[in-house]
Amino acid sequence: MHLILTALLAFGSDIGPKPLSYGGQPTPLKDMPGIEVEMAAEDVKLVLHRSRLDVEVVFHMLNHGPDAEFEEGFPVGPYRTMKGFAFTIDGKPLPFKLVDRKSADPKADRSAEPEKDLFKGDAKEPDYWYVWTAAFKAGARHTHVVKYSVDLSHQHFYHQTGYILHTGAAWKNPIGKATVTLTFGEGTSVDHLRGVRPFDNARVQSNQVAWTFENFEPTKAHDIVIGYDLDTWKEDVAKLRADASWNGRRALAATLKELPGWQGRKTFTTQELRDYLDALGGLVSEGAMEDGKFVFPGTDPEQVSGPPELTKLFAGQTRMRYYVLEDDILHMFQGFLDEALAAARAHPAEAKATLTLYRDFLRRLANGEVHVDFRKLSGGRNAGKVLPARALKPEEKKTLEAKLAEADALLK
User: CA nearest 379: which of 318, 301, 326?
Assistant: First the structure.
């Protein structure tokens, strides 16, 4: 739950009409009755820094009805992490207040009150909004501009921010056009991204990401989500390459697989594909024939390490690999076979060598030929032994054989 709350408070949202008329209720996801004002277009500019997200949004509003004046609002969420909030209509600043729609008095200004500590049980979770009174002339267009920064300094392990579009659904008609542009400020770049959503709408050009939506009724599927890290992906890859353990190499392969998606791309560059396939193939390439048996490592050369008491307890013992500890060889390597098959479908020539490694290894496993090497293990019942991998159940073997048949077809 903590991570969800942390993510929520790092987002901004579209303005909405009459927030107090449905105080304490979910934000409407469709046009509100009686609202004749349309959000004809909006332009959202996001600038990601290491510890904050700067936001500037220009809303172009069109009144299809008579003169109107009502309360308008901008969602803040349960935590007051927005700094420097400012709002103008047609270039003129308007007074606004901070309210809690879930409180007993949803019209009271809470801006001077200290923030509630929800993790100490001070009170129920609030629903803060900035609100103001907006006037719309009959048949006229008005320009609303919102500016603020979101404090991201609280995000130590899980880094996510973005912008919520679905709160704009309460205005009349679909939104004519929305553009969202993400650029990078102090200490960040596109190389810090760890995925963006909606993925299919994202376009990465140079050092920015852009989304465009036209004639749409915004839903939660349109909300902009930006995953990022304080290290660049190159720094992450360098750290993983320095870890020679099998699990470190598994993490490297998983990271290289996700790299295009981190940057909003669907395809690898030539070098990215080569690196990923090499890393994936390296996870299964260590087996060898020995005394008529196909022997595959069950341990890493590194000794168990950690806090002093753990190191002392397991002094001199080598580290068992994760396909022994957390899973078994079939399920883990069948998952890697699925990756190799997907790569071979998309890149037949480039992925051939990697797919061959997995086909041959898993065929040996299906035939009961794989033995796991525990000779370097210094403790436990398996220490010093070479043991056959467990026999596959009939249904497991049937599923695996179908995958191996596909691999054979792709390798012809």
Answer: 318
> Has residue 338 got a pLDDT over 80?
yes
Distance of alpha carbon 200 from alpha carbon 66, whole angstroms: 39
How far apart, in whole angstroms, are the C-alpha atoms of residue 170 and residue 158? 31
Confidence of residue 6 (pLDDT cuts 50, 70, 90): very low
Contacts of 118-124 with CB under 8 Å at 24 or more apart are 118/5, 118/78, 118/79, 119/2
| 370-373 vs 293-297, strand pairing mode | parallel
Q: In what order do the strands lie in the sheet with 160-164?
A: 11-13, 160-164, 224-228, 193-197
Strands 11-13 and 160-164: parallel
- Show the beta-strand stretches assigned E in 81-202: 82-89, 92-93, 97-100, 128-136, 141-151, 160-164, 175-184, 193-197
Count of other CB atoms within 10 angstroms of residue 172? 19
Distance (Å, whole) CA 57 – CA 145: 6
pLDDT digits (tens, 9 = 90+) for 37-86: 999 999 999 999 999 999 999 999 999 999 998 888 888 888 888 889 99
User: Of how many residues is the chain composed?
Assistant: 412
Backbone angles phi, psi at 261, to 5 degrees: -65, -30
Six token digits for residue 206: 């140079």
Q: The pTM is what?
A: 0.79
DSSP for 24-38, written as a single string: TSPPPSSPPTT--EE
Give the pLDDT mean for 120-135.
80
Which residue is listed with tokens 């899973």?
327
Give the tens place of pLDDT for each residue, 288-317: 999 889 999 998 865 545 555 544 444 445
CA 10 to chain centre: 14
Residues in contact with 343: Cβ distance below 8 Å, sequence separation at least 6, in sequence order: 273, 276, 277, 280, 350, 351, 354, 355
Query: How many other CB atoms are found less than 10 A from the CB of residue 352?
Result: 15
